[in-house]
Amino acid sequence: MPQLNGGGGDDLGANDEMISFKDEGEQEEKISENLSAERDLADVKSSLVNESETNQNSSSDSEAERRPPPRSETFRDKTRESLEEAAKRQDGGLFKSPPYPGYPFIMIPDLTSPYLPNGSLSPTARTYLQMKWPLLDVNHGSLQSRQALKDARSPSPAHIVGPFCLEFPGQSDLSLHQFQLSNKVPVVQHPHHVHPLTPLITYSNEHFTPGNPPPHLQGDVDPKTGIPRPPQHPDISPYYPLSPGSVGQLPHPLGWLVPQQGQPVYPITTGGFRHPYPTALTVNASMQSFLSSRFPHHMVPPHHSLHQTGIPHPAIVTPNVKQESSHSDIGLNSSKHQDSKKEDEKKKQPHIKKPLNAFMLYMKEMRAKVVAECTLKESAAINQILGRRWHALTREEQAKYYELARKERQLHMQLYPGWSARDNYAGNQQGKKKKRKRDKQPGEGNDANTPKKCRALFGLDQLSLWCKPCRRKKKCIRYIQGEGSCASPPSSDGSLLDSPPSSPSSVAPSPSSKESKPQTEQMQPLSLTMKPAHQPLHHPHLLAGHPPPPSLVLLENSAAAAGKMPGAAHNGAHDHGNVSSSRQPGSSGASLARPSAASLCHSHSLHPNSTAPQPLSLVTKSIE
DNA sequence: GAGCCTTTGAAGAGG
DNA sequence: CCTCTTCAAAGGCTC
User: Strand pairing partners for A161?
Assistant: First the structure.
């Protein structure tokens, strides 16, 4: 039975253990069939990313990768509709199966970006090189996709972005000079350090070469500067660079991630304004010193020491200070001017960004890929696609990101013990205007159709109606499909949970205007997933403490979902939608207006007569 | 130039 | 305990 084992100790950092999935309770058989798989996942959870496991998954991953890339289309339209349309089309191609090939990517922070002290780039441009998980897939898998990607006729340089280039595990010497880390920021990578760091350095294949770091990694010397790089601690996340002196001083919070010695130093040029990207995970002396000098006392960990590297945390952004200008100012302005500037800067509190969550990490990693594949540039549209892809990911795949995110948070916490998300609230930011979501339209509120949790829905007196997990925890966060979960409340007839018309065909496609949002949204499926045959069906609750893949629904097919499990199918969708909308009323409203690509895709997929491949998952976003 | 859009997840505030 | 809000990334778009 599904268990919410909060105790796993390692909940991957996701608080969504409560989140149920559409497939939840769907088919016990499947569940049992995949029980072993679930256990494996549980193991993964406990041990986080397991190398061997990753390896095992590589086959499927590589398989996915071998799939022909979605047709490349250009979406030039500027209108929102066009964006949606684009997204929709993307679904057609991208959504058939999780494009994401497992976790073979290593995210390499863009060293030129914000997190580097003097980076001349936009502080917001934190970018990463994406690297395929070395052990996972061996060249063949990525070859085609890479080639395909290369072939992609994208006006954008994105097609040559790191991810693809780095997909060759064995090519540690691959020269990265030619690649860009992001669309915005060109980054020069040292050929010898292809594996730079990942948020978790241990993801690099060298890491798995016990005691035998590749020769080129030893005696690491920056080719450009000729400056030898200090050994890097593998455990450290690139997000949180520490001074070279700090390497290995502290134990990694994630001890299970065994660091390798001689980890490749993050290929950052030490010359110019760029700094080496040291990797020491925990807050060590240097970091302490650094933090002490840069942050309010209360934010700095009690331990004090000495190293003065001044290497900022990647998440640290000095607000309102343009590095470029200050840089160029040097020698141009009077010392007075500089002094005043410095003072101003001092006055300004460094902005410590929130650690990225699982989805954000995923987006960072996959954005370039999506951009290259569809030549889309608008983040809104891309994010839509990525959101659907995210839902299409298998639990294992998502788990990896959850794990990464958990580590990020961990690291962030260690580095900034006193930091609070609240600190970043606009209200607390000096000179920063508070972002305001658009006010809800009167009828736009999600109140009416706000998804009710078990408790709210059935009340305490009807505990028996609650889904099991909810009963256990006495609370419920998401709808649960099937398995007598609350989600599928028998209310296919119009009860609270009842969602939008179960029949997609009934959905009115008129998403052209925002005014029509609500309705369209209601029926618009958010995600449509083709379930790979080889993919096990994971029951959310089976994974104790596993991060809850939000609304990942795996249905045998849409038809089945619609016909056999009426309540389940759309209820889940409903749930999802509600969650989303409730989360961000304003934005959700806007989104609703758009005929989400996914939704469109869904609607036709779900159609009984649809000859298209049967969607395995359907997530509908409901609104009112 | 600020803010919006769009996504999911995390965290905090408030009821 | 639950709900709501904000922020995190990103880049085009709008005002």
Answer: A180
pLDDT band per the 50, 70, 90 thresholds, residue A432: low
Question: What is the amino acid identity at position A284?
Answer: N
Q: pLDDT-derived band of residue A341, with 50, 70 and 90 as boundaries?
A: low
What are the residue boundaries of the structural domains of chain A, listed by start? 319-352
Give residues with Cβ within 8 angstroms of A288, minimum separation 6: A300, A301, A303, A304, A305
The model's pLDDT over A302-332, given as tens digits with 9 standing for 90+, comes to 443 333 334 455 566 654 443 333 333 334 4
Phi, psi of A2 (to 5 degrees): -60, 135
Find and list the nucleotides of strand B having atoms within 7 Å of a protein beta carbon.
2-13
Q: A104: buried, middle or exposed (CB in 10 Å: 19+, 13-18, 0-12)? A: buried
HSE-up (13 A, CA, CB side) for residue A614 = 13
Give the residue among A4, A32, A9 at the shortest CA–CA distance from A538.
A32
Q: Which residues contact A502 (CB under 8 A, 6 or more apart)?
A: A492, A562, A566, A569, A570
State which residue has its Cα closest to the C1' atom of C3. Answer: A582
Task: Please tell me the distance from the alpha carbon of residue A367 to that of residue A522, in angstroms, as a whole number.
Answer: 27
Distance (Å, whole) CA A287 – CA A280: 9
Q: Which of residues 371-410 of A touch strand B (CB under 7 A)?
A: 378-380, 383-384, 386-387, 390-391, 398, 402, 405-406, 409
Distance CA A596, CA A582 (A): 17
Of A164, A163, A168, the closest CA to residue A136 belongs to: A168
Residue A152 tokens read as: 């992609």
**Distance between alpha carbon A610 and the CA centroid of its chain, in Å?**
32
User: What does the alpha-carbon distance between residue A259 and residue A265 come to, in Å, rounded to a whole number?
Assistant: 13
Distance B8 C1' – A329 CA (angstroms): 40
Determine what percent of chain A is predicted with pLDDT higher than 90. Answer: 4
| Res. A32: pLDDT tops 50 | no
- Per-residue confidence at A401, pLDDT binned at 50, 70, 90? very high
pLDDT at residue A376 is higher than 50: yes
Residue A390 above 60 pLDDT?
Answer: yes
**Mean pLDDT across A377-397:** 90
Closest CA to A536 of A15, A14, A10, A23: A23
